[in-house]
Request: fold
Amino acid sequence: MSLKIYTKTGDAGSTSLFGGKRLPKSHLRIEAYGTVDELNSFMGLLRDACENPAVKMRLEAIQNLLFNIGAALATEPGQPAVVPAVEEEHIVLLERLMDDMDAQLPPLRNFILPGGHPTVSFCHIARCVCRRAERQVVALAAEEPVHELIIPYLNRLSDYLFVLSRKLAQDLEAHEVIWAPVKDTAS
Reply:
């Protein structure tokens, strides 16, 4: 027997956490794990656009971990974890990957504009959604318990996505456009 996608239990504007507690769909916890889910979708788009097999494998591993993070955020505080959320080694791995890419990139001396190639743009979009997910988890953590490594992981992941965007631009021979502040023309 297959699982039905629709349950009709959310028709009144609430949803269940793992553990059974119901919350309004506008609750900060729901927004937080919903944004992690949105990030995961953009990571899939980035993975689909990427042609480097090693990067594709890394992005898939990150997507699996984002599902774990979403499950942790969707678990009622005080209930046992459905899956492990994130471990210190995941953060250390992102740092090592960034260091490896940085060693191959020209030094960053200016802000750069997102873009240059569709794959690079997808990476920047994922980075921005990751920053939003991080902000929502920070807000949630101010009100309720959140696994202590989720915020550092999301922070490092957004940094990783920025460095990856630069590395992808280099690999794709896309030009990085330096930010040129707009001058006040009124005077």
